[in-house]
Amino acid sequence: xxxxxxxxxxxxxxxxxxLLVAVGIAVGLVGVVVPLLPGALLAWSAxxxxxxAVGTATGWAVVGVATALxxxxxxxxYTIPGRRLxxxxxxxxxxxxxxxxxxxxxxxxxxxxxFIGFVLGVYxxxxxxxxxxxxxxxxxxxxxxxxxxxLLELTSTLLAAVVWSIGVTIT
Length: 171
Known about the structure:
Order of helices and strands: HHHHHHH
Largest sheet: none
Helix content: over 70%
Number of strands: 0
Low-confidence stretches: 5-9
């Protein structure tokens, strides 16, 4: 058989459910990076839908492993950056102010306003707390923590997507 025949034969085995689940996972992965959508939740939901559609032991094992990976990612994405922020002396108050200003920023400047608002909010809170000279290092620590948190969530969601891909191949 030629490569094109093999390729078309393997593509014809993709079901509509698998295609929709793949799109759901892809949208979820984008949602992890662009905080407009609940990314990990979307990817997990898509995998659960696939598990129901397949209904086999393998399908449910994939759902179980994906659930464990995403749940672990959700726990770790808060604990590791939070521990580092406490070590750097950034109070929760500054993060809350940053989050609130990020919400306002989202509506004022769509998409990028979330990031701009968070930075401005944390910086303003830190200026009020410790002064302008020491506010920027705290703000950078908060930005690093957000980046690490996003990377941890993305990693766990990508691992769940890989597990789902393996499950699709097996079933």
